[in-house]
Amino acid sequence: MKQVLAAVLAALPFVSMAQPECYAEIWQKSEVRPVAQRLDTSAPGAEAKLRASTAKPTPREKEALAFLLDGVMACQKIAHEARKDSMHPEAQAVMRSYEMDTNALITKLYASRISWGEFTEGREKAWAEFLEKAQTVNAKIQAHNAMLDAEIQRRQQLAAAQAEEQRKAALRADFERQQQAETAQRQAELDRQAQAQRDVMNGLILMQAARPQPRPNPLMTPSINCVSRPGAGTVFTTCN
Known about the structure:
- This protein is mainly alpha-helical.
- It has helices at 2-11, 14-17, 20-27, 33-39, 46-51, 59-83, 89-110, 116-210; strands spanning 226-231, 234-239.
- The radius of gyration is 58 Å and the shape is rod-shaped.
């Protein structure tokens, strides 16, 4: 019986995708045993035999199907809550579509609208469609994630380039501030030296202005004696 249950679990892919312990608990119930072999396609030739079956569920099998459907839907509800924050919305939609298709097949089988063979074919068709949709969505999600990764990498590179440029700008600003400070310091030293020279000159001027100036001697009025003598028709004058 354990081998049959393992085969049934493998035949229902959604069991391995969400809340497997919930589904495993269902298959361990005695109420499901009447339909366990009907769902097991793992044995050699079992799939062909099941596909060819035109039989419809017996009352006992219908009771097992009703119990199975109630349990599966309860597990699906738990799975919805578990994956709503961890699975991409489009992937959730594909998963939900597959679950609804499977539930619809069980309902039709329970109502004797389809045979066990039609149920087997329908389940395989639903699984094939699920795989195709899942692969398409997976490729789309991977492409989207790759685009996001490329965008994140581009932004990281841009941020790194901006940070490097800011670092260089900060270094240039620091260098310019240092140069300006050194220039201001040199200018302040030149101004200090110039002021010191002006102070020395002003001090010399003040010292020169404070020095007493010598008074000039008064000029003496010379005494001049002149003597006039006639001679040769003219007058000669001599002064000493």
